[in-house]
Write a structure and sequence with these properties.
heterotrimer, A mainly alpha (268), B mainly alpha (297), C alpha/beta (286), A: 268 residues, mainly alpha, MetI-like fold, 11 helices, globular, B: 297 residues, transport (chain B), ABC-type phosphonate transporter activity (chain B), cell membrane (chain B), PhnE/PtxC (chain B)
Chain lengths: 268, 297, 286
C-alpha cells in the first residue's frame, strides 16, 4: 500500500458512500414529512370504513346492466373518433415542431429551438383532461373540444420522441445527399425523412393507443365520448351502468393495445 | 452470376488481379447498351393494387364520417372565441395573488401525494415486478403478478380515483392511493422486462455456486437492474406529479381541484397561473431527475 | 451515343493554401496546395487523423475550410454562396466510406438522388425524374452490375453491392471530378480490389479526375496514378506510386506507427439508424 493514489481513491469512495446513505435518509425523512402533511386533515373514520364501503359499492355494482349497452355504441364511436382525429391533428402540429426542436434540423439553436422545446414541455405537462376542461369552457361541450384536447396533449409526446429520433439519424446519409448538390428541402426529403419514417409510424400508433385510453374519460368534463355516460351514471349513482361502462372501456383499451402492438411489430 | 455483372468482368480494362494497372494508355471504352426504360416508379408499399385501393377508400370514408361526426356548433365557438383570447391573455398576465391560498394548498397536496405515492408504489412494484419476470418466478406467481399489472395499466387514473374517492372520501389520501396504484402497473411491467433481459450467464454463474433464490436475486439481479429502477422511479415521480393535477377534478385532492374551480368560474388568469406553476415544476423535476440519473450511472 | 460515356475534358482541380482548423482547436489541414489535372486519379494516403477526410470534404465544402481557395476549372468554389455551391457540387461526385446510401430507399432512388441538383423539389418529391435521367440510371446500374436490384431497398444489399450503388449515384451526377473517401474501408480484400478497379475503369471511360482517400498502401500503389502523402495536415510526399519507398512511408506514417498498415475502421453503428422507440423511450416521453 505505497501508492499515493490509493488512499485518495478510498477517501472519495467513503465520502460517496456517506453521501449515498445521507440521500436515502433524506428520502425517508421527506416521506415522513409529506405523509404527515398530507394526512393531517384526513378523517380516518372514513378510511377504517373503507372495506365496508368497498364491499357495499361492489354489491351495488354487480351485476352490470347489460341492456344499457344499446346506448353505449354511439359514445364508443365518438371516443374512437376523438382519439383518431386527435392523433392526426397532433401529428400535423408535432412534425414541424420536432424538426424545429432537433439540434440538427433547427433553423436556429438560440431562438427557435428553445421555443419548440417549451411547446413540447408545456404540452407534456398538462394532461388532456385539463386541456379538455379549458376547451369545454371556450368551445362549448362536444367532440371538438375532446379532439383538440387530445391533440394538444399528444404534441409534446410525439414531438419529444420524434425530435430524439431526428437527432439520432445517420449523418453520413444526409451528407451524401447534400454532396450531390441537393437543396435543403431535397436533403430533408431524401436524407432525413426515410430514416425517421419507421420511428414516426411507431410513435403515431403508440400514441393513438394511449389516446384511446385518455379519450374514454374526457367526457367527465363534457368533452364527448363514453365518459359522458360514465359521468351521468356516477352522478345518479347508477352503479350497474358504471360497471358496464368500465367493462366496455377495458375491452376497448385491450383491443386497441393489441392492435397497436400488432401494427408496431409489422413495422419493425 | 447475373448477366450485367458478367459483362462487366468480361470487358474489364484491367486485365487481371495480378497485373499492374496501365490504364493511362487505354482509350475510353464504349458500351453497347440496350434500350432501358425511361419510366420508373417506386414499388408501392402494398403490392396488391386492389387491397391498396380498398385501404385508401376505407381511410377516406372513415375521415369523412369521423370529421362529419364532430357536429361543431359554430355560434357557440364564436361565443367562446372571446374567452379563448382571455385565456391566452391570462397566460401573459397570470394572476398568482387572488387565489394564492387555494393554489398553495393544492400544490402542497399535489407534491406530498406525488412523493408518498411514488415511494410506496415503487416499494410494492419491486416484488410484483420480480414476480412478473418469467425467468425468476414460478408460473402461478407469474400469472398473478401479470394480472395485477394488466388491471393497473388498463384502468385510467381518473377512473381509479373515482372508486377510491367513493371508498375513502374526498381528499389527498384517495389521490395517494390512486397514484400508488397506477405506479405499480407502470413500474412493475418495465421492471419485469428489465429482469427478463438481464444477462442470464451471470445469474447462472451465481446459481452454480449453490446460492439460494434470494442470493441469486441479491448478487445477480439487483446490481444489473438497480440503476434502471432508479431511473424509472424518477420518471414515474414526474408522471405522478402531472397526474396529481388531474385527479383533483373528481375530488381526490391536489392542485387539480383549484384548477377546476378557477376554470369553472372563468378565472382564466388564476388558471393560467396554476398551469404555469405546473409546467415550471415539471421542468424542474425533469432537470433534477436527469441530474440524479447521471449521478447514479 | 449515351451522354455519360462521352469523356469530359474539363475537371481540373486546384487547391491553394487550403487550411482547416476545427473549433476544438485541432489543426486538420495546413496550407495544402495541390493541382489535379483532368483525368488523373490521385491517391491520398496518410495515418488516421492526418486530414485526408477533411481535405476531401473541404473541396465540396461539406466542411468549410478556414483559409485557402479551391478552384474547379475556372470556378472558385470557396467563393460561392448557397445556390452556386449546389450547382458546383453537381460537378463533383462523391463516394463515401461505409457507402452512405440512404438505407431505406430503393437502389433506384439512391442512384436517382445523384440527379437532385438538377431537378426541382416537386419533381424529386414525387419521384418524377426526367425520362433521360431514368434511362441513364438504368444504364449506370448495368455498368456496375446491379440491374436486377433496382427495386430492392439499399439495406438489402451486400457491402460490395452497396458501394457499387454509391458509385452509380456519383456517376449519375455526370461529374467532372470524383471525390472518393475510403471506398474500401469496410470491404473484404477481394471486394476492395473489385471496387478500386471499377473506380479506375469508370474514371478512364469518362476521363474523370479523382481524389481517392485510401488507407491501404498496397491498394494505392496498385491502382493510383499519383500518390500524395499527408501527415498532420501537411503534404509530405507527392509523386508516382513507385516512389513509395520504406523511407517515404516512414516519413508519412511516422516511426512508431510504422509496421502493419492501419486496419480498416469498422463502424458498427452505421446500421443502427433511428429505430422505433422502445418502452424506455416511451416512458420518458409520457
Amino acid at each position: 500500500m505505497s501508492g499515493a493514489g490509493q488512499p485518495l481513491w478510498r477517501r472519495r469512495s467513503r465520502a460517496a458512500e456517506l453521501l449515498r446513505w445521507l440521500g436515502w435518509l433524506l428520502l425517508v425523512l421527506l416521506f415522513v414529512v409529506c405523509w404527515t402533511l398530507m394526512t393531517q386533515e384526513q378523517i380516518w373514520e372514513f378510511v377504517w370504513d373503507a372495506p365496508t364501503q368497498a364491499a357495499d359499492l361492489f354489491s351495488r355494482m354487480v351485476p352490470p346492466r347489460w341492456s344499457y349497452m344499446d346506448s353505449l355504441w354511439l359514445p364508443l364511436w365518438d371516443t374512437l373518433n376523438i382519439a383518431t382525429l386527435g392523433t392526426l391533428l397532433a401529428l400535423l402540429i408535432a412534425v414541424p415542431v420536432a424538426f424545429l426542436a432537433a439540434r440538427n434540423t433547427t433553423p436556429s439553436l438560440l431562438l427557435v429551438r428553445p421555443v419548440a422545446l417549451f411547446i413540447i414541455v408545456a404540452s407534456r405537462s398538462v394532461n388532456a383532461l385539463i386541456w379538455a376542461l379549458l376547451l369545454v369552457t371556450i368551445l362549448g361541450p362536444g367532440l371538438l373540444a375532446g379532439v383538440i384536447a387530445i391533440a394538444l396533449r399528444s404534441v409534446g409526446f410525439i414531438g419529444k420522441l420524434l425530435y430524439e429520433a431526428i437527432e439520432e439519424i445517420d449523418t453520413r446519409q444526409v451528407e451524401a445527399v447534400r454532396a450531390t448538390g441537393a437543396g435543403p428541402a431535397q436533403v430533408l426529403d431524401y436524407g432525413i425523412v426515410p430514416q425517421i419514417l419507421p420511428a414516426f409510424a411507431g410513435i403515431a400508433v403508440f400514441r393513438w393507443d394511449i389516446n384511446i385510453r385518455e379519450s374514454t374519460v374526457l367526457g367527465l368534463v363534457g368533452a364527448g365520448g363514453i365518459g359522458l355516460q360514465l359521468k351521468a351514471s356516477v352522478d345518479v349513482l347508477a352503479w350497474p351502468q358504471v360497471t358496464l361502462i368500465f367493462i366496455v372501456i377495458l375491452a376497448t383499451v385491450i383491443a386497441s393495445e393489441w392492435l397497436s402492438a400488432r401494427v408496431r411489430r409489422a413495422l419493425i | 452470376m447475373t448477366r450485367p455483372a458478367s459483362r462487366t468482368t468480361r470487358t474489364s480494362p484491367v486485365p487481371s488481379e495480378t497485373a499492374e494497372p496501365t490504364l493511362r494508355d487505354q482509350a475510353p471504352r464504349r458500351h453497347q447498351s440496350r434500350d432501358w426504360p425511361s419510366h420508373w416508379r417506386r414499388p408501392p408499399l402494398i403490392a396488391d393494387a386492389r387491397l391498396r385501393w380498398a385501404l385508401i377508400i376505407a381511410v377516406a370514408c372513415y375521415l369523412v364520417l369521423g370529421i362529419g361526426s364532430l357536429e361543431v356548433n359554430w355560434a357557440r365557438v364564436a361565443d367562446g372565441w372571446e374567452r379563448g383570447l382571455r385565456f391566452l391573455g391570462g397566460f401573459l398576465q397570470p394572476d398568482f395573488q387572488s387565489r394564492w391560498g387555494d393554489i398553495e394548498q393544492g400544490l402542497m397536496e399535489s407534491l406530498t401525494m406525488t412523493l408518498t405515492a411514488t415511494v410506496v408504489g415503487v416499494l410494492i412494484s419491486v416484488p410484483i415486478g420480480i414476480g412478473a419476470a418469467r425467468n425468476l418466478a414460478p408460473m402461478p406467481v407469474y400469472l398473478l403478478c401479470r394480472g395485477i399489472i394488466a388491471v393497473s395499466r388498463s384502468l385510467q387514473e381518473i377512473i381509479v380515483a373515482i372508486l377510491f374517492v367513493a371508498m375513502v372520501g374526498f381528499g389527498p389520501l384517495a389521490g395517494f392511493l390512486t397514484l400508488a396504484f397506477a405506479t405499480i402497473g407502470f413500474l412493475s411491467k418495465l421492471l419485469a422486462e428489465d429482469i427478463e433481459e438481464i444477462d442470464a450467464a451471470q445469474a447462472e454463474a451465481v446459481r452454480a455456486t449453490g446460492a439460494s433464490w434470494l442470493q441469486v436475486l441479491n448478487y445477480a439481479v439487483q446490481p444489473q437492474v438497480m440503476p434502471r429502477l432508479i431511473g424509472l422511479s424518477l420518471y414515474r415521480l414526474d408522471i405522478n406529479f402531472r397526474e396529481s393535477a388531474v385527479i383533483g377534478i373528481v375530488g381526490a385532492g391536489g392542485v387539480g381541484a383549484t384548477l377546476n374551480t378557477a376554470i369553472d368560474r372563468y378565472e382564466y388568469d388564476s388558471a393560467a397561473a396554476v398551469l404555469l406553476l405546473i409546467i415550471a415544476i415539471v421542468m424542474l423535476t425533469e432537470y433534477s431527475s436527469s441530474w440524479v440519473r447521471r449521478q447514479v450511472q | 451515343m449515351p451522354p455519360t460515356v462521352s469523356p469530359t475534358t474539363a475537371g481540373s482541380l486546384r487547391l491553394v493554401g487550403l487550411t482547416k482548423r476545427y473549433r476544438t482547436g485541432d489543426q486538420a489541414l495546413s496550407d495544402v496546395t495541390l493541382e489535379v489535372p483532368p483525368g488523373q486519379v490521385l491517391g491520398l494516403i496518410g495515418p488516421s487523423g492526418a486530414g485526408k477526410s477533411t481535405l476531401i470534404r473541404c473541396i465540396n465544402r461539406l466542411v468549410e475550410p478556414s483559409a485557402g481557395r479551391v478552384f474547379l476549372d475556372e470556378t472558385e468554389i470557396t467563393a460561392l454562396h448557397a445556390g452556386g455551391l449546389r450547382r458546383a457540387r453537381r460537378r463533383m461526385g462523391m463516394i463515401f466510406q461505409e457507402y452512405a446510401l440512404v438505407e431505406r430507399l430503393t437502389v433506384m432512388e439512391n442512384v436517382l438522388s445523384g440527379r437532385l441538383g438538377y431537378v426541382s423539389f416537386w419533381r424529386s418529391l414525387f419521384r418524377r425524374f426526367p425520362p433521360r435521367d431514368i434511362e441513364n440510371a438504368f444504364r449506370l446500374l448495368e455498368r456496375v452490375g446491379l440491374t436486377e436490384h433496382a427495386d430492392k431497398r439499399a439495406d438489402a444489399l451486400s457491402g460490395g453491392q452497396r458501394q457499387r450503388v454509391g458509385i452509380a449515384r456519383a456517376l449519375a451526377q455526370e461529374p467532372e471530378l470524383l471525390l472518393v473517401d475510403e471506398p474500401t474501408a469496410s470491404l473484404d480484400p477481394k471486394t476492395s480490389r473489385q471496387i478500386m478497379r471499377l473506380i479506375r475503369e469508370v474514371c478512364a471511360e469518362r476521363g474523370l479526375a479523382a481524389i481517392v482517400n485510401i488507407h491501404d498502401v498496397a491498394l494505392a500503389q496498385q491502382f493510383m496514378m499519383r500518390i500524395v502523402g499527408l501527415r498532420a495536415g501537411r503534404v509530405v510526399y507527392d509523386g508516382p506510386p513507385e516512389g513509395l519507398t520504406p523511407a517515404v512511408l516512414t516519413e508519412i506514417y511516422g516511426e512508431e506507427d510504422w509496421g502493419p498498415l492501419k486496419p480498416a475502421q469498422t463502424d458498427e453503428e452505421a446500421d443502427d439508424a433511428a429505430g422505433i422507440p422502445d418502452d424506455q423511450d416511451i416512458a420518458r416521453a409520457l
